[in-house]
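Researcher: We're reviewing a set of sequences before deciding which ones to prioritize for further study. For each one, I'd like a predicted 3D structure that I can look through quickly. This is LGFP repeat protein. If possible, include the structure in token form so it fits the rest of the review sheet.
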Amino acid sequence: MPFTLGGAAVGGVLTGPAPARAEPARSVGAIAADQPVNIITRAQWGAGESMRRGAPLYGNAVNAGVVHHSATGNDYTPRDSAAIVRAIFTYHTATLGWGDIAYNALVDKYGQVFEGRFGGMTKAVEGTHTGGFNRNTWAVCLIGDLDKSAPTPPQLRAAGQLLGWRLALDGVDPHGTVRLTSAGGPFTRFAPGATPTLPTIFAHRDVGDTDCPGNAGYAFLGRIRDIAARFNQPPTIQDLADSLQGGAIYARWQAMGGINGPLGAPTSPEAPGAGSTRYAIFSHGAIYWSPASGAQPVIGAIYDAWAILGYETGPLGLPTSAEIQEPEWIVQNFQHGTLNVDRQSSAVVSVIDGQTKAVPPPPAGGPPTQIERFSPARERNV
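Model: Here's the predicted structure for LGFP repeat protein, in token form for your review sheet.
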């Protein structure tokens, strides 16, 4: 199915209804401490560098970020996004003759971030995204038609963190303003030499004759600025809750009452465990997910005992049920056995392959934590 960019049809993109997501949303977080999101490089998304023309142009610094939307379809899967970026690249390069993709970065509705124009993400590369105001600005394109649908929470979070990181490299306050000089031209309302004062994160429509990034996208500019302003600060409870939206872990937490339920508030973003396991930690426990086990909560004494035994890498494997309340015991099923709490003594007993064994209580400092999963850099990138 072709999609439309700027009134022209571009074909060859694999689009279709996004499947119902049975797995948790992938966290966009967590690589180097100085970069807030994983960035899919040009080589990784398949930029045809032989098609690119001309050397990159550089400004003096990045003084503002500009938010766009692609005006393409919204029904795409995570696997479609790279093909959409390649199609935009081909359209901008071969059809419009711009020499390269217009934007400095692109963000899909799943929070995947794609490197845009060639020349270096940390440099003031001049794009062809915002007529009259391409120099000393840095453009992020939200993939989709944001006249028809609002940007998703992962998309907003990734775009905000990306802009916060990039503007911070040049000491720019995401909540500030800046005076920019118009280069004029047919794609802006400002004559050459005009110096409008603009937010340091503004929209394409603020300077051009366009509705980009769509009415629904434009309504969220304040949210993007807020996220950008605190990209390197510890996440709030709301940040963490937002980061879980869209997946099975969030759905299970909500079904249990959310922040008012037995698990309480989230205290970590979602993270990878062993194999295909994903998990998130809450004030009073955790939820673990895998394709085989689904999303299951672990809390209280059973959570502590399971931690002592090695979490999902221990002999029990992953939980396959929540707690089961019996008259004398609290029981929870795991892939290779059960954990059982005696209601009278609070002792915990494991049953693995028919063998019953007492689980020692946690040490004074609490159960073991697998530190390698949650570095400070990983925790801040929600």
